[in-house]
Amino acid sequence: MIDPRGHVRLQTIRPPDRMIADRLRRAARSILLALRAPVLHLSGLFRHRERRPPAPSRVTRLLVLRTDRIGDMALTTPALTDLRAYFRKAEITVLAPTAPIELLRQHPAVDHLVPLTGSRLPEGLAGRFDLVIDFTPDEQLRGALLARATHAHLRAGFRAAGRQACFSLRGPRAERRRHIVDLNRALLDSLGVPAKALRPDLYVSAEERGAAQARLASLGAASPRVAVHPGAFYPSQRWSPESFAAVITALTERTGAACIVLCGPGEEHLADRITAATPDALLTCGIPIRQMMALVSACDLFVGNNSGPLHVAAALGVPTVSVMGPSDPLRFAPRGPADRVVRKELPCSPCNRARCWHHTCLRAIEPEEVCRQAEAALRIRLPREEVL
């Protein structure tokens, strides 16, 4: 802009803030949580509290609660392994939604699986258990209320916004910048359970793996095989399908890799955009979770966003390359020796938000960066245990 004297003046115009509604929602939620905490504390004021964690001999029936998604269940498997080793004589039951519970069909640490299909405790579970553990690592009340509905004498979970009123044992705080596996270990430590398992672990049967091998052969997928998952629970976590397509094209040309695109319910449009951008993608959509697990276990590499299939792949011992935008790697990144994370360190990242109006943390990641990490992972091809 030029003023009357002929001087040039620079005028800075701030772009409109498109996140006002989101900020208002977050502020309202914080206020509601702050008001909820004293109410819950009062409701649990006269409830019985246990000062000491239970001895293994006191627990013959144990219930584990996990009310969220498949990635959270995969990250809980080290805790299940430690519970099995400590409570050797106990029957361990897991209550979870139908999708996450499928992950545990072959898991040796679990005796019984009960699907959670609504908000209420399924019939026949109240009064059955000696110890109930809710692994919800945030302020959500669903798991805590289910734990209280069991009427178990011993109930444990994380402290957050008053939800600890539902428990009879004192648990740790649900720290936000701590890895989920480490949080679970802290909860076990509060129960006197030695936390030794470090790595998530999932299992597929020989029959499931054989069927996956046959499916891959029918697609013409020769080794090396790369599973690609463009989805994520929140849109803010999704790298663009066109970027994934560029990675698939480059990996096919440079390494001869067969890239199998996975998509869950509601993610078909992402897979369609990938196949429209590259002819090298092999599409596999709409398969059940157990088949997805077996297919991933038969691959040499997994490439995707921070999502459930990422943590499933890591728990199956498959090397991973994950694209992380708003997700906090300190909390969610796979930590195996063959796992790699691609992200941009920005002042606003990680924000862990479900919505964003600019997505710079993801848009700034170039396909070549991801491709280099994938190529390096395929070159190393660290030996891994067979999952049966």
Secondary structure tally, helices: 13
In helices, the fraction of residues equals 25-40%
What is the molecular shape? globular
What CATH first level of the largest domain would be assigned? Alpha Beta
In this structure, how is the largest beta sheet organized? Answer: 6 strands, parallel
Order of helices and strands: HEHEHEEHEHHEHEHEHEHEHEHH
Number of strands: 11
Strand order of the largest sheet: 8-7-6-9-10-11
Q: From the 3D coordinates, which CATH architecture of the largest domain would you assign? A: 3-Layer(aba) Sandwich
CATH topology label of the largest domain: Rossmann fold
Give the name of the CATH superfamily of the largest domain: Glycogen Phosphorylase B
The span between the termini is 70 Å
Class per helix and strand makeup:
alpha/beta
Mean pLDDT, to the nearest integer, reads 89
Could you say how many structural domains there are in total? 2
Which strand-content bin applies to the residues?
5-15%
Poorly predicted runs? none
Using the CA coordinates, give the radius of gyration. 23 Å
What does it look like?
The structure is a single chain. The chain is of the alpha/beta class and 388 residues long. It folds into 2 domains: 56-190, Rossmann fold; 206-380, 3-Layer(aba) Sandwich (Rossmann fold), CATH 3.40.50. The chain has helices at 20-43, 70-86, 98-102, 142-149, 180-190, 206-218, 241-255, 268-277, 289-297, 308-315, 329-332, 360-363, 367-380, and strands spanning 61-65, 91-97, 112-116, 131-134, 154-156, 225-229, 258-263, 281-285, 301-305, 320-323, 340-342. Helix 2 (70-86) runs parallel beside helix 5 (180-190), helix 7 crosses helix 8 (268-277) and helix 7 (241-255) crosses helix 13. The longest helix has 24 residues, at 20-43.
